[in-house]
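Q: I'm building a small set of examples for a reading group on sequence design. Run inverse folding on the following structure and report the sequence directly after it, with nothing in between.
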């Protein structure tokens, strides 16, 4: 049954109202972005969010560079002034994110393989944060829309992959964990 004329007219009007996305090519492996003026949100909001991401990436990287990773493979967060994790002492096994701060610290200190060996999830999250900061910096410098990149990310798949990696990293950490004495 062919569509009704009113539906065809409505679809044509909707297509005309959508912003031109000819500059955007979303292949399976490549995410590109449009100029900031053509982004999905106002320019000031796009710049504010990109600037916040850059500031957070620099602040966290600077903080991690200021401390040395704990050689035990966990408890680096204690060197940042946080309380020690009670999970290993209470349960005799690591918490799901045990060693994530140490892995992030190792990564920013230039030891990516040691970071992966310490806590794969922590290394992946730290690498993703650095990559996100680099993309936001590029968008700010090149007047490209950061939010356009953000809306193109397959966030559902990334979330599922992150949860799977967290669980696998917890299993790995449980196998190599040496409980505190």
């Amino acid at each position: 049954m062919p569509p009704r004329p009113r539906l065809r007219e409505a679809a044509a009007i909707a297509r005309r109202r959508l912003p031109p996305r000819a500059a955007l090519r979303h292949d399976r492996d490549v995410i590109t972005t449009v100029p900031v003026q053509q982004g999905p949100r106002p320019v000031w909001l796009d710049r504010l969010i990109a600037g916040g991401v850059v500031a957070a990436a620099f602040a966290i990287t600077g903080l991690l560079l200021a401390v040395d990773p704990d050689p035990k493979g966990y408890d680096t967060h204690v060197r940042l002034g946080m309380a020690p994790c009670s999970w290993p002492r209470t349960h005799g096994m690591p918490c799901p994110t045990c060693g994530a701060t140490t892995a992030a610290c190792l990564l920013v200190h230039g030891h990516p393989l040691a970071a992966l060996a310490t806590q794969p999830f922590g290394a992946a999250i730290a690498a993703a944060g650095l990559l996100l900061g680099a993309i936001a910096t590029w968008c700010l410098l090149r007047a490209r829309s950061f939010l356009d990149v953000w809306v193109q990310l397959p966030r559902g798949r990334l979330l599922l992959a992150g949860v799977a990696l967290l669980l696998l990293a917890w299993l790995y950490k449980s196998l190599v964990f040496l409980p505190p004495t």
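The chain has a mean pLDDT of 84.
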